[in-house]
Specification:
This protein folds into 5 domains: 1-52; 74-131; 162-258; 269-351, Beta Barrel (Thrombin, subunit H), CATH 2.40.10; 357-479, Rossmann fold. It is built from 11 helices and 10 strands. It has helices spanning 3-52, 55-59, 61-65, 74-90, 99-120, 134-207, 210-258, 380-390, 420-425, 429-453, 460-466; strands spanning 273-279, 284-287, 300-304, 318-325, 330-337, 348-350, 361-365, 394-395, 405-408, 457-458. Helix 6 runs antiparallel to helix 7 (210-258).
Length: 479
C-alpha cells in the first residue's frame, strides 16, 4: 500500500478512537451523576420512611395497625382508628386536626369530667383526676350506683315494713276506738235513761208517802251506783284510748328513727370547695373553684377542718378572701387564722350566701349593730341585704316556702308613742313610731313563719361566721 494511504488510515483510526473515548467518558460522567441523584433520592425516601416507622415497626405494621381498610394506606387506617376512639370518648366526630390534638382534646375532656366527678363524689376515691383512667372511673361509679341502689332498696323495705306495722296498729286502734266509742254512746244513753228515771222518781217521791219515799230512795241510790259504774267504764275507755294513741306514737317514733325528719339547717353545712395548696410564708391558699364555678374577687370563705363536721355556730379555723380567679383554681389571702390550729391541704371551705349551682333566698329582719358601738344601726338591714345581693344571693321581704335562710338581728325595742306636743314639734316622730311598730310586727311574723316552715335562723355573729366575714365586718366600708 502506498505511504500516503497508510497515513490516512492511521489518522482515521486515531480520530475514531479519540471520539469513542470522549463519548465513553461523557456517558460515564452522565451515569455517575444519575447514580448520585438516585442515591440522594433513595436516602431522602429512607429518611421519610424512618420518620413514619422504624424497620422493626414496618415488619410488624400489620400486627400493630390491624387489617388495612380498602383504598387506604396503613397510616390512613390508623388515623381512622384514632378518630373512632376519639369519637367514642368525646361523643362527636373529630374535626380536621392533627391526631395529637385529637388525642389531647379527648384526654382533656376525660380529665375535666373526672375532676367534676371527684368534686361531686369525693368518696369514690378519685384522689388524682389527672391519673384516673376512664374505664376504672366508670367501674367505681357503677359500683357506687349499685351500692346506693341496694341501700335505697333496703331502706324502702324497712320503711314499707314499718309502714305496714303502723297501718296495722292504726287500724287496730281505729277498731278499738270505734268499739270504745260505741260503748261510750251506749253508756251515755243509759245515763240519759237513768237521769230521766231519776227525774220521774223525784217527782214521784215528792207525791208519795213515807214508805214510798224510803223505797224510792233505796232505788235512787242503786241507780246512782249504776251511774257511778258507767262513769268509771267511760274513764276506763278513755284510758284505753290514750294507751292506743301512745302506742301509735311509739310506732311513729320508731319510723322516725329509721327515716328521721330532715335537718332544716343541712343546707348551711354544705361544703363549697377545698384547699389544694398552701403558702404559709405569703399567707396564701389555692382553692379548687374558679370562674367556671362563678367565683369572683372579693368573695370570702370560712375554712373548716377536713376531718370534722362544720360546727353548728359556723365558726371556722380561718377566713380567706379571693383576689385572683382562674378557670378552675382561685387564689385567696388569709384574713384571719390561728397559728395553733394551722390550715392544711384538703381543709374544706364554705360560704352561706354563695353557691355555684343555685341562688339562695334570704330574708333579713331585726336590729343590727354592725359597727359594734352598742346601738342598732339605722341602715343595718339594708347593709346586710346589700352584702347578700353582692355575693349572688336573693333577698325577699317575707318568709315563704322558697326562703332558704333567715338572718335575724336582735328584737326591735318598742318605742314610746309620741305625745301630741312631740308630734307637733317633730312631724317625723309619728312616722318613726309607726315604722318601728311595723319593724316589730315584721320581726315577730318572720320568726313565727320561719319556725312554722322550718327555715334556718341565723343571728348576726353566726351569719358572719358562716360567710367567712366575721374578721372584716367592723372595718370601714365592709358592707
Amino acid at each position: 500500500m502506498p505511504a500516503g494511504k497508510k497515513s490516512s488510515a492511521a489518522l482515521y483510526t486515531l480520530i475514531i478512537f479519540v471520539a469513542t473515548t470522549i463519548i465513553g467518558v461523557g456517558l460515564a460522567v452522565f451515569f455517575f451523576i444519575q447514580t448520585a441523584n438516585y442515591k440522594t433520592k433513595a436516602e431522602t425516601l429512607q429518611s421519610q420512611v424512618d420518620d413514619l416507622a422504624t424497620g422493626a415497626e414496618l415488619r410488624k405494621i400489620a400486627a400493630m395497625v390491624g387489617d388495612k381498610q380498602r383504598g387506604k394506606s396503613r397510616m390512613g387506617t390508623m388515623v381512622d382508628f384514632v378518630d373512632e376512639t376519639t369519637e367514642l370518648i368525646t361523643g362527636k366526630v373529630p374535626e380536621d386536626m392533627p391526631a395529637e390534638s385529637k388525642v389531647n382534646d379527648a384526654k382533656l375532656k376525660v380529665k375535666e369530667t373526672v375532676a367534676q366527678l371527684a368534686k361531686q363524689y369525693p368518696d369514690i376515691g378519685l384522689n388524682d383526676p389527672n391519673g384516673a383512667a376512664l374505664i376504672p372511673v366508670i367501674g367505681k361509679l357503677n359500683s357506687k350506683l349499685e351500692n346506693t341502689n341496694k341501700m335505697i332498696a333496703a331502706t324502702e323495705q324497712q320503711v314499707n315494713d314499718l309502714q305496714k306495722r303502723l297501718n296495722d296498729a292504726i287500724q287496730n286502734s281505729l277498731d278499738k276506738e270505734k268499739m270504745l266509742s260505741d260503748e261510750k254512746d251506749k253508756a251515755m244513753a243509759q245515763l240519759a235513761t237513768i237521769q230521766k228515771e231519776y227525774s220521774e222518781l223525784k217527782v214521784l217521791l215528792e207525791k208519795s208517802a213515807s214508805q214510798q219515799v224510803k223505797s224510792l230512795s233505796t232505788q235512787l241510790e242503786a241507780e246512782k251506783e249504776t251511774a257511778k259504774q258507767l262513769n268509771q267504764d267511760m274513764l276506763k275507755a278513755e284510758a284505753e284510748l290514750k294507751l292506743a294513741q301512745d302506742k301509735i306514737k311509739k310506732i311513729q317514733d320508731s319510723l322516725n328513727a329509721v327515716v328521721p325528719p330532715p335537718d332544716a339547717e343541712v343546707a348551711a353545712f354544705k361544703i363549697d370547695a377545698r384547699v389544694i395548696l398552701l403558702d404559709e410564708k405569703s399567707k396564701t391558699v389555692f382553692i379548687n373553684v374558679g370562674s367556671a364555678d362563678h367565683v369572683y374577687p372579693g368573695l370570702t370563705f370560712a375554712i373548716y377542718d377536713k376531718n370534722t363536721p362544720i360546727p353548728r355556730d359556723g365558726k371556722g379555723k380561718a377566713e380567706i378572701e379571693v383576689y385572683n380567679v382562674g378557670k378552675n383554681v382561685s387564689t385567696a389571702r388569709i384574713t384571719q387564722w390561728d397559728p395553733k390550729n394551722p390550715i392544711i391541704v384538703d381543709d374544706v371551705i364554705a360560704n352561706l350566701i354563695w353557691d355555684s349551682r343555685k341562688t339562695n333566698v334570704f330574708m333579713v329582719a331585726g336590729d343590727f349593730d354592725l359597727d359594734g358601738d352598742g346601738a342598732a344601726d339605722d341602715n343595718g338591714v339594708e347593709r346586710i341585704k346589700a352584702l347578700i345581693e353582692r355575693w349572688g344571693g336573693k333577698v325577699e321581704d317575707q318568709i315563704s316556702v322558697d326562703t332558704d335562710f333567715l338572718v335575724l338581728g336582735s328584737e326591735p325595742q318598742r318605742p314610746k308613742k309620741p305625745t301630741f306636743e312631740e308630734a307637733e314639734a317633730n312631724p317625723t316622730a309619728m312616722e318613726k313610731y309607726e315604722a318601728a311598730l311595723q319593724g316589730i310586727s315584721q320581726y315577730d311574723e318572720a320568726l313565727k313563719k320561719a319556725q312554722m316552715l322550718s327555715v334556718p335562723i341565723f343571728n348576726t355573729d353566726r351569719f358572719l361566721y358562716f360567710i367567712g366575714y366575721k374578721s372584716q365586718a367592723d372595718r370601714p366600708g365592709a358592707f
